[in-house]
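thought: user wants a sequence for this fold. calling inverse folding tool.
action: design(structure=
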């Protein structure tokens, strides 16, 4: 599977489902973004079970602002609708593989428990 263009119109349906979604926030004028693009594209072809989305921060400024993107490229990973990774900077191929392996290996019951604890702590 190749990458999917993510917009304000399809972001919610893309990240809210089950499974893994990786989002690359980028812009055409960004040198590091252009260096990371082929790495991201190659990984999308190697992992057809993962959704690889690209968010053009110039075209989707409201979406980038909503995710508080201050530096590009920024990579975000969602699993089962939960943000589990966010990091600015272009990753080398080995770094992206490491992120994918870590996200695949997450104990989602534990992640959901931690999210619930954080929400409870914030509301008290």
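)
observation: tool returned 124 residues.
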């Amino acid at each position: 599977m190749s990458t999917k263009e993510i917009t304000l119109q399809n972001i919610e349906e893309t990240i809210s489902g089950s499974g893994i979604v990786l989002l690359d926030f980028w812009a055409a004028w960004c040198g590091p973004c252009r260096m990371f693009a082929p790495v991201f594209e190659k990984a999308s072809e190697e992992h057809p079970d993962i959704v690889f989305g690209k968010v053009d921060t110039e075209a989707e400024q409201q979406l980038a602002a909503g995710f508080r993107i201050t530096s590009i490229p920024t990579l975000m990973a969602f699993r089962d609708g939960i943000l589990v990774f966010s990091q600015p900077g272009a990753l080398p191929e080995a770094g992206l593989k490491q992120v994918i392996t870590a996200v695949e290996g997450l104990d989602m019951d534990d992640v959901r428990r931690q999210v619930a604890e954080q929400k409870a702590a914030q509301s008290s």
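thought: summarizing for user.
answer: Here is the designed sequence. The first helix runs from residue 11 to 16.
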